[in-house]
Amino acid sequence: MSDDRFYLPPGNPDRPLQGLTVLVVEDSRFASEAIRLLSIRSGARIRRADSLAAAHRHLAVYRPSVVIVDIGLPDGSGTDLIAELARARPRVPAILGMSGDPEAEPAARAAGADAFLAKPVESLAWFQQALLAALPGGVLPSGPRAVSGDRILPDPVALADDLHHVAEMLRGDGSGARAYIAQLLSGLAISAHDPALAAAAGQLALSGAEGARRRVVDLVEERLSRAQAV
């Protein structure tokens, strides 16, 4: 990111993010697929990084117009990347934090985020409005814009991929990984509207007891079996 400015092409009323590039830093394929579909419907190009390290590799090559950073990542906190981006010159035009935990919003904003997306991110109108409001003035599309009531739901295959990943981590779970597994699973459950799985993830975060872990394993395996049967 050695250039001294970012190019922000104006959108249009039908595709208000036309010409923008969105980098989503998100370890869940299911959650990032939702952002991908929302971005494409809005006219934006999309790139994904699944870790802080991958995000740095992208940022060394590309100049995104918008960066959406999940707070819980496998190699650290998304707030560290938000703070780094907020300090950088030239600055990314719009930086948004994202989490299934609404209590993460103050930390994201304190680090320098312009806005915050609470999972699940499904509403096309809400997504567009959040990104447009975070961008600097002067790049908003001119003229009236129809507000879409569409909900964008990612492919269930992406959910199954995430569940397989969780299952693999659970098989090799050490005490140091438990907090990350619980965090990933909680965000995934919220995005998938699965309250039972969210509750089990919460119990896993609070307790390392075998019972809590076994409950999560059983639920993950049951949902994978259900997905394979479809």
From TrEMBL:
SMART domains reported in the protein's UniProt record: REC
Keyword Phosphoprotein set for record: yes
Record domain Response regulatory: where: 21-134
Pfam families, per database record: Response_reg (PF00072)
Keywords recorded for this protein, A-Z: Phosphoprotein
4-aspartylphosphate carried by residues: D70
Provenance organism: Maritimibacter fusiformis
Organism domain of life: Bacteria
Any one of the GO BP annotations: phosphorelay signal transduction system
Protein name (Swiss-Prot/TrEMBL): Response regulator
InterPro entries for the chain: Bact_response_regulator, CheY-like_superfamily, Sig_transdc_resp-reg_receiver
